[in-house]
Design brief:
The chain has 2 domains: 210 residues, HUPs (Rossmann fold, 3-Layer(aba) Sandwich); 161 residues, Adenine nucleotide alpha hydrolases-like domains (SH3 type barrels, Roll), CATH 2.30.30. It contains 10 helices and 20 strands. Helix 1 packs parallel to helix 2, helix 1 crosses helix 6 and helix 3 packs antiparallel against helix 4. The radius of gyration is 25 Å and the shape is globular.
Length: 478
């Protein structure tokens, strides 16, 4: 057994059960472990509970460190967090984009600002309670290559949140619970009598807590009432962009496939997905022949411009003169909202629109015009898209050695949000960006979110990995 006593590891101890068990495992493995708790948020008024959750978390974390028998330190990174995560969030929402603060927190705080603090305290590595696995091997140039595999627990895989890490950051990272399933983590915590054993998993924005997002965003973004417009199916019949997408997808179908799929079957995050290549209807040679300009257009969403005219009429016995909107075959104003910047594509909660058989979803937001467009049901045409684009400046490769060249195409598995089952897709690298063409349409592709691509791994370098896994190779902002 290796002597780990000379390797100093800083565990980011949050007060939760995952990081607590990670600390306990490291101690059992003989590492020289110390705990560092970081405070990243002060304002309790923004949380739904309205109290200082971080104070309770710090108290529990300190009890855990004492129970395990490791030193405990505290660092306040709230100013860095505000500048590098929260201010970015406000800026993105103001532009009508939907950022992922947890991804930013890992890139900018945990494995940057926090890592630097840990190194000042003598740490060789920083460990967290993320459910993912890291493996390292020697590359062809003799340099170490670090890779991230999905966590062993398919219900808790958190690799998505680490999709912006670099090789340098990974070289300093450890994930002790990555090859353990959540029930086993709970069992180990109870067996070790850790104070966090029964603590519920944290929810909400990383280090801020569970918040009402519109209320949180109203700290800097002003409410402004606008219309909610429901878009009818008839709008798409003569829509130039929708028909261009349909025609382009039809042009790249395999010769033995006659119909192109435009609407997703996707309903929930728990829905199973087909295996590799099982559902691909597109011909790779035909995809390669599509111009950069047409690929760019293929990746763009349908935009909405429905005009409503008014008419006057007389109402009641006194024939009082009133104004109403004329009926429009393409849509209807169905409600009001308090600011288009507070809503995101695919959202269904918080709309307060009744009188429909199926759920209502946001399908587009017009920030300059302050209009929200919605559609009824999972199968609404405006909710599905097959292609997205990542700008060249936003492409990030975790595995730099596997970076795609312009003109290259590869088959990967992709997710566009945490907990989404992996989707089969073709990645197409062009001068004007990286395009991701999915085998089946995707619901709620949202600008500002991260698309993350994975490759199947036949063989793990460790003996603990039980089955074929997937390795996260890179990511990009949609």
């Amino acid at each position: 057994m290796a002597d780990n006593s000379k390797i100093k590891v800083c565990i980011g101890l949050s007060g939760g059960v995952d990081s607590s068990v990670a600390a306990w495992i490291l101690k059992q493995q003989g590492y020289d472990v110390f705990a560092l708790f970081m405070q990243n948020w002060h304002d309790a008024s923004t949380t739904l509970h309205g109290d200082c959750e971080w104070e309770e978390d710090r108290f529990v974390a300190e009890l855990v460190a004492r129970k395990i028998g490791i030193p405990f330190y505290f660092v306040d990174l709230s100013e860095e967090y505000r500048k590098r995560v929260v201010d970015y969030m406000f800026d993105e929402y103001e532009k009508g984009r939907t950022p992922n603060p947890d991804v930013l927190c890992n890139r900018e705080i945990k494995f940057d600002a926090f890592l630097k603090c840990a190194e000042k305290l003598g740490a060789d590595y920083v460990a967290t309670g993320h459910y993912c696995r890291k493996e390292s091997f020697e590359g062809q140039d003799g340099q170490s290559v670090h890779r991230i595999l999905a966590g062993a627990d398919p219900n808790k895989d958190q690799s998505y949140f680490l999709c912006q890490l670099t090789q340098t950051q990974l070289s300093k990272a450890m994930f002790p619970v990555g090859d353990i399933e959540k029930p086993e983590v709970r069992r180990l915590a109870a067996e070790a009598d850790l104070p966090s054993a029964d603590k519920k998993d944290s929810q909400g924005i990383c280090f801020v807590g569970k918040v009402d997002l519109p209320t949180f965003l109203q700290q800097k973004l002003k409410p402004c009432e606008g219309d909610v417009v429901e878009v009818y199916d008839a709008y798409y019949a003569d829509n130039e962009q929708y028909n261009f997408v349909k025609a382009t997808l039809e042009s790249i179908l395999k010769d033995d496939v006659s119909d192109v799929k435009m609407i997703t079957d996707y309903v929930s995050e728990d829905k199973a997905t087909p295996s590799y290549d099982a559902g691909c209807s597109f011909d790779l040679d035909k995809i390669a022949a599509v111009s950069d300009e047409d690929l760019f257009r293929l990746s763009q969403p349908v935009k909405y411009d429905i005009k409503f005219e008014t008419e006057t009429y007389r109402s009641g016995r006194k024939h009082i003169k009133k104004t109403r909107y004329k009926e429009n075959p393409f849509g209807k104003i169905v409600g009001k909202h308090n600011g288009a910047q507070f809503y995101t594509i695919g959202q269904r909660k918080g709309l307060n629109i009744g009188g429909h058989k199926d759920s209502i979803f946001v399908i587009d937001t017009d920030i300059p015009g302050n209009v929200i467009y919605v559609g009824e049901g999972h199968t609404h045409k405006g909710l599905s898209r097959s292609c997205l684009r990542v700008d060249p400046s936003e492409i990030h490769w975790i595995r730099e050695d596997l970076r795609m060249a312009v003109g290259e195409m590869r088959r990967y598995r992709v997710r566009i949000r945490y907990r989404q089952p992996l989707q089969d897709a073709t990645l197409i690298m062009r001068e004007n960006g990286l395009y991701i063409l999915f085998d089946t349409p995707q619901r709620g592709i949202t600008a500002g979110q991260f698309a993350v691509w994975y490759a199947e791994v036949e063989e793990s370098l460790t003996t603990r990995a039980k089955d074929t896994s997937v390795e996260m190779l890179g990511s990009g902002v949609i």
